[in-house]
Design brief:
By secondary structure, the protein is an alpha+beta fold. It is built from 8 helices and 6 strands. α1 (about 25-40) packs antiparallel against α5 (about 125-135), α1 (about 25-40) packs across α8 (about 200-210) and α4 (about 110-120) packs antiparallel against α5.
Length: about 210
């Protein structure tokens, strides 16, 4: 990953992460990034993780539909093999994916909650919980009752975030030319597109400061 010039350990690194919750590669990258950030911070580095929204299926409904049906439209007869493959990859990363009752739904309100949580200093906690809610707990993350429950569980004070605020964030990502996710940018450097290994993420973090090992 390309990195900007030298920095000191006292500097705050900005890590931008563009993602959507149903995207398995976004979840893998976020999970690995959490491990890398934990190591970086434990070694004295300071980093701010900034979440930026992307919607894979802005036309999806709030009530949702079985995720298996959505995957079947993409993979056809290979759907079961595709699911088994991604569940195996998840297990190798220490994650658990379930698809029996998984719900594919609109993620706009989940990104709205992320915006709210980030403003209150709980961004990383709510994003982890929303990923897990979708991929492991088979919850509908477009359901207002589910979102309120997750907000309460992660210490987020529920407030109204205007639609226009979230739409402006989505347009901002589009203006930067991002058409696929996940995408990462370290301290305003070049965007890095696609799933990243924990090793690559750790190298990007430590390479920028040269001090947090």
């Amino acid at each position: 990953m390309p990195a900007p010039g030298p920095r000191t350990a006292a500097d705050i690194m900005r890590v931008e992460f563009v993602f959507d919750f149903p995207c398995v590669w976004s979840y893998f990258t976020f999970h690995r990034l959490q491990h890398s950030l934990a190591r970086y911070r434990a070694a004295g580095g300071t980093a701010e993780l900034i979440f930026r929204p992307f919607q894979l299926a802005p036309e999806a409904s709030g009530t949702g539909e079985p995720k298996r049906d959505v995957l079947r439209r993409s993979f056809g007869d290979d759907t079961d093999d595709a699911i088994a493959g991604i569940e195996s990859l998840a297990e190798a990363d220490g994650l658990q994916f379930r698809h029996t009752n998984a719900v594919w739904s609109n993620t706009f309100d989940a990104h709205r909650l992320t915006h709210l949580a980030q403003a209150q200093g709980h961004g990383e906690r709510i994003v982890e919980r929303l990923f897990r809610a979708h991929h492991t707990d088979e919850l509908n993350i477009a359901d207002p009752a589910v979102l309120r429950r997750l907000a309460e569980a992660t210490g987020v004070r529920w407030q109204i975030v205007r639609d226009a605020t979230v739409r402006a964030e989505l347009r901002s990502v589009q203006r930067e030319g991002l058409r696929s996710i996940p995408a990462l940018r370290f301290d305003g450097g070049e965007w890095v597109i696609g799933a990243q290994s924990e090793m690559a993420l750790h190298a990007a973090l430590t390479g920028i400061t040269g001090s947090a090992a």
